[in-house]
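Why do we bother with holo predictions? Because pocket geometry can differ from the apo form. Keep that in mind while you read this record for MTE.
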Amino acid sequence: MIIKKPSDIRSSEITSETHFKQRRDIVKTMGLTALTLGSAGTSAQLFAKSNDDDLKSQLTEYKDITTYNNYYEFGTGKSDPAKNAHTLKTSPWDVVVDGECEKPGKYSLEDILKAMDIEDRIYRFRCVEGWSMVIPWNGFQLGDLLKRFAPTSKAKYVYFETLLDPENMPGQRTSVLEWPYVEGLRMDEAMNPLTLFATGIYGKDIPKQNGAPLRLVVPWKYGFKSIKSIARISFLEKQPTSSWQKANKHEYGFFSNVNPKVDHPRWTQKRERRIGEFRKRKTLMFNGYEEQVASLYKGMDLKKHY
Ligand SMILES: Nc1nc2c(c(=O)[nH]1)N[C@H]1C(S)=C(S)[C@@H](COP(=O)(O)O)O[C@H]1N2
Ligand SMILES: [Mo]
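The structure, written out:
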């Protein structure tokens, strides 16, 4: 199996091993108090111990993260995905890999997860609509996965597709967006160590409404770049067009970096409402990840490349 780590010699119990790994990480950080995991309020406080920056005190409650969603395949209201996403079929799950790479193919999620190390990452999350959260993800670095497919020198962009399954995704039977939902990153953005494929939240499997079983997280970009329930990865020479660019190219560009200095045509991006808080916060350049990612855009006019 191409993407396996050489050290991975066992081939059985793949899924439970993944769960165990996620579980073990969280148990390690919380000790015996892990037994109380399950109440969102306390899990927020407990999980916080595993991370050492100031975000740990700002974690959004599990309940808010999993009931206030955008997932148009399951409705356009914020509470629709939590109600409707139970029809999403997440197993078996395959990811098709194609385009400019030496190891295209159809990879099972089990094989992918077996090869990856699951980590905890607390990230700010900023939706283009003006709300934000702080989310404790579990996942792996996207770059660690992509390099196993051996992209060729022609691979300048990575393109992603959400599962297309109108039978089980009622929104795909409407024309609110073009289906499947698609997104893209420039290769250097995809390879940046901040960029994750998420498989969990608060140490539990990622809920369907949040994009099970595999969902992109790019913390310095607006939330809509975080495409959910990914079923295809393509390496491309040319910049792809994302779903929101197709929907309205004047309002949504390819880069979609969080930028308080460039307003959305219909509203300001200077402030945000953190879910669970009353007073608005100032939105930070690159959502607070300027130090790690500003160099990716050196020399680019970010007003033009929004
Ligand atoms: N397939 C798919 N992915 C999607 C969306 C969607 O409608 N369909 N919505 C996007 C938007 S606009 C946001 S803000 C985030 C929301 O993620 P969350 O519900 O986990 O907070 O998912 C993004 N990924
Ligand atoms: Mo969004």
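The pocket of MTE (ligand 1) is lined by residues 69-73, 127, 162, 181, 210, 223-224, 226-229 (CB under 6 Å).
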